[in-house]
Design goal:
Blueprint: H1 2-13, H2 24-58, H3 65-77, H4 79-86, H5 91-117, E1 129-135, E2 138-139, E3 145-152, E4 161-168, E5 171-179, E6 184-189, E7 197-206, E8 212-221, E9 226-230, E10 241-242, E11 248-252, E12 258-264, E13 269-276, E14 283-285, E15 297-308, E16 317-322, E17 327-331, H6 358-384
Parallel strand pairs: 2-8, 10-17
Antiparallel strand pairs: 1-3, 3-6, 4-5, 4-7, 7-8, 9-11, 11-14, 12-13, 12-15, 13-14, 15-16, 15-17
Helix pairs in contact: 2-3, 2-5, 3-5, 4-5, 5-6
Length: about 375
């Protein structure tokens, strides 16, 4: 038994294993082929990117511009193998993995160079973008209208300003240049003449490469934008009697975010929020709500506010519609008057959108691909050593 164990130990001490001889000359030759192939793929990608750039310009304003360009890039990838054969690159030394890496290097390099070339400062095909809003687009006489725009461009706006024209009944009311500050420009129309009807406005922005964007819009002045529909109050005192169960309804024709009204007896003034009834779409309230004054003759004035946020800008822009008609009521002395809490309005909040552009996505993919290939090459070289 001991003899067998001894023979087994001797066999384990003398394993039949020989370290293979490292072919240094073959390794160097193979690495030179890989380096040469990588260099050719990179140069070829640069040349084809220049040709593709001209193709890109010819396809300007074509809805399939990116699709056709990417198909062209994929098609030309097959030329890499043909180019290697013409330049006497040993494909056996390169191997299937090396050929695939060359394809990837070519395509990602081509894509990276093309993305750089089709964006400023090398090229600009995009006109400025104008996001414009009228606050409000329906106003009562005496109120103002704010025309506010967010103007952006992938390079720069000429003179950092836009041209603005306001007209009424085909007559120009104002024609001016509005300065852009932090992407925002604004014009406030006061309508001192209290002229009713529809106003038209035009805003034009031109970038430093002479690409122009024009937007048009309208707003209206009308004395019935806010209207009390129930009960029919009087415009002079004394008004009709109302109790805690009376329904106070307002019709607001303009799109607004916040409706409220004031109740005043001449000495005290309270403001009360109103919510819209989803069934009849009127803004409904009642003397049951806190703010109404018991046993007093009061006057009521309605207000509607339009609040707006541009994407990724925290600044709130707003304007208010004030009903030009005051309504008088005689409030009963019921104990239930002014006992219920008013509703809390659900107001707009800043909007944040973080969506990278298509070019940014392609750039990230290209960069990640190149880094992965370099890392793979480095790891393989270390393993071969």
């Amino acid at each position: 038994m001991a003899k067998r164990r001894k023979e087994k130990d001797e066999e384990e001490e003398d394993p039949d294993f020989k370290i293979p001889k490292f072919d240094e000359e073959g390794f160097v030759r193979k690495e030179r082929v890989k380096i040469k192939a990588t260099f050719i793929a990179f140069i070829f990608a640069f040349v084809v990117a220049l040709i593709t750039f001209g193709f890109w310009i010819l396809l300007d304003n074509n809805p399939f511009q990116w699709t056709l360009v990417l198909l062209f890039g994929l098609f030309t990838t097959a030329w890499v193998r043909y180019l290697y054969m013409k330049l006497n690159i040993d494909l056996e030394q390169l191997g299937k993995k090396g050929l695939f890496s060359s394809y990837a290097i070519y395509f990602l390099t081509w894509l990276f160079i093309l993305i750089v070339m089709v964006n400023p400062p090398f090229y600009d095909m995009e006109a400025p973008n104008i996001e414009i809003v009228a606050l409000p687009d329906m106003q009562e006489p005496g109120g103002t209208v704010k025309i506010i725009a967010k103007v952006t461009d992938n390079d720069a706006i000429q003179n950092n300003a836009v041209d603005f024209i306001l007209s009424y009944d085909e007559s120009v009311v104002i024609e001016t240049s509005l300065h852009i500050t932090n992407m925002i420009c604004m014009y406030e129309f006061e309508n001192t003449n209290h002229t009713l009807g529809t106003y038209n406005y035009t805003m034009k922005a031109k970038d430093v490469h002479n690409h122009q964007t024009t937007v048009n819009g309208t707003f209206i002045y009308n004395p019935d934008i806010i209207k009390l529909t129930q009960p029919p109050g009087t415009e002079t005192p004394p008004g009709p009697d109302v109790t805690y169960s009376s329904s106070i309804k307002f019709d607001v024709k303009a799109p607004v975010n916040w409706m409220y009204y004031s109740v005043s007896d001449g000495a005290v003034i309270n403001f009360i929020n109103v919510t819209k009834n989803n069934e009849d779409f009127f803004y409904e309230s009642s003397p049951y709500i806190k703010g109404w004054i018991r046993g007093k003759e009061v006057n009521v004035t309605a207000y509607a506010k339009y609040i707006y946020y541009f994407e990724n800008i925290e600044t709130e822009y707003n304007n208010t519609i004030i009903d030009t008609t005051q309504h008088y009521f005689n409030v009963s002395d019921d104990s239930e008057i002014g006992t219920k809490d008013p509703p809390t309005p659900d107001l707009p909040q800043p909007r944040y959108v973080f969506v990278p552009g298509f070019e940014t996505i392609l750039f990230i993919i290209s960069l990640a691909g190149v880094l992965l290939i370099v890392k793979y090459r480095k790891k393989k070289r270390n393993n071969d050593i």
